[in-house]
Amino acid sequence: MSAASLRRAARESVSGLPRAFWWLWTSTLVNRLGAFVATFMTLYLTLDRGYSASFAGLVVALHGLGGVISSLVAGVMTDRLGRRPTLLAAQASTAFSVALLGFMEHPAAIAAVALLVGMTSNASRPAVAAMMADIVRPEDRVRAFALNYWAINLGFAVSATAAGLIAEYSYLAGFLGEAALTLACAVLVYVKLPESRPERGGAGANGESGGSGGALDKGGAEPEIGLGSVLRDGRFMGVVGLSFLISLIFTQGSVGLPVAMGSAGFSPGDYGLVIAVNGFLIVALQIPVTRLIEHRDPQKLLVVSALLAGYGFALTAFAGPVWAYALTVCVWTLAEIVNSPTQMGLVVRLSPVHGRGRYQGVYTMSWAVAALVAPLMAGFMIDRWGADWLWATTGVLGTVAAVGYWLLMRGLSEGTAGESAPAAAGGTAAAPLEAPLPTTSGPVGAS
């Protein structure tokens, strides 16, 4: 490909997106540049503090429990108070709690503050996703989510390498650095991002209908969307369940992998270099791969990505030197590149305009629950049977998720993309798809 073609492809990848999106993108990048706690918590507890893998798993699980709680609460706040206030509150409180965690000494205090960090750090996710859906046109959302994911991993690639070196000298510096950058994100949100929550009773953002997919009542008011409505949406909850399995696999990159490498005699710097491969590959490949897959059958993409994720981690059982660990990261990173924008764009399409916060909160909860379960699973299996059993389990989970995507997509493919979804099992009408799904083999309803 010529230089001119590369420049044209780059312009097409970033053109047409609103200014507010790029400020949100910048906030994401700055935030991820400071990522430390989630990546190095297990190494901090096992190598620096000398705790067992089981205790480290418990603490990281409490971090995940905090995310479960805040996902739902923040989803409601996003819809009721607005995206901007939720982001400000979440980021300011995250900065405080992360700094506090660095000074905790007693095991109970570490566990309690880790729970607080989990609550505050996950609270911004529903607001970010909802704001992005508000300000970006439906036809540009898969691209926008891919670009945002690219920013996440650009920041992660840089921070993982730097933080791995920092951790060898001072874990406290890592905690304080993350707190400072998170506080900078809060300031950026306050100064540059306007509120984007659509007004009820009229057209939503980008001219979309403000309804939830159900009929308006006789007075013209839109049906109220509560958490119960989300949980009764069978189509959407199927996506949430499969997302949990996938995230249970991917979370092992930050909980199972560092413990296994530490037990094998590798240093935090070694782990930092290996996991940085994940971020650097996403930075290099996310945008071109998204351009390649955005018009392909999402059923096939999600099935293949599930298999690559499961068996990519399973290959870790055969890794010996550092470069072999890095090769396994390459396999499951490709799965991540394919899965993330495909599924995120789909979640937005299944979410009603005035219920985006709650829908994103429940979707985010799938990752938070995985963050709760994955460290407990990793700690127990590594302590009891060894890391090879953990990697074999990821292969099984990937297979189950692939079958689940295939079955769910087959059932949903009978509908036509862009049509209102049928009523969910509980009697709640699911959200309409806001734009045709990317496919080359006929319309497909959802993932």
Task: From the structure above, extract its key features.
447 residues; mainly alpha; 17 helices
Give a quick rundown of the structure.
The chain has 447 residues and is an all-alpha fold.
Description:
With 447 residues, this protein is an all-alpha fold. It is 71% helix and 0% strand. It has 17 helices and no strands. It has helices spanning 3-14, 19-33, 37-48, 53-80, 83-101, 107-122, 124-135, 141-167, 171-192, 227-231, 234-250, 256-263, 268-293, 298-314, 322-349, 356-384, 387-412. The longest helix has 29 residues, at 356-384. It is globular and about 55 Å long. The relative contact order is 0.16. Residues 209-221 and 413-447 have low confidence and may be disordered.
For the record, give the distance between the C-alpha atoms at the N and C termini, rounded to a whole number. 33 Å
Helical residue percent? over 70%
Radius of gyration: 21 Å
Total helical segments: 17
Spell the H/E element sequence: HHHHHHHHHHHHHHHHH
Give the averaged pLDDT, no decimals: 76
| Unreliable spans | 209-221, 413-447
- β-strand number: 0
Dominant shape:
globular
In terms of structural class, how would the helical and strand content be classed? mainly alpha
Strand composition percent: under 5%
Biggest sheet record: none
Write the layout of secondary structure elements.
Blueprint: H1 3-14, H2 19-33, H3 37-48, H4 53-80, H5 83-101, H6 107-122, H7 124-135, H8 141-167, H9 171-192, H10 227-231, H11 234-250, H12 256-263, H13 268-293, H14 298-314, H15 322-349, H16 356-384, H17 387-412
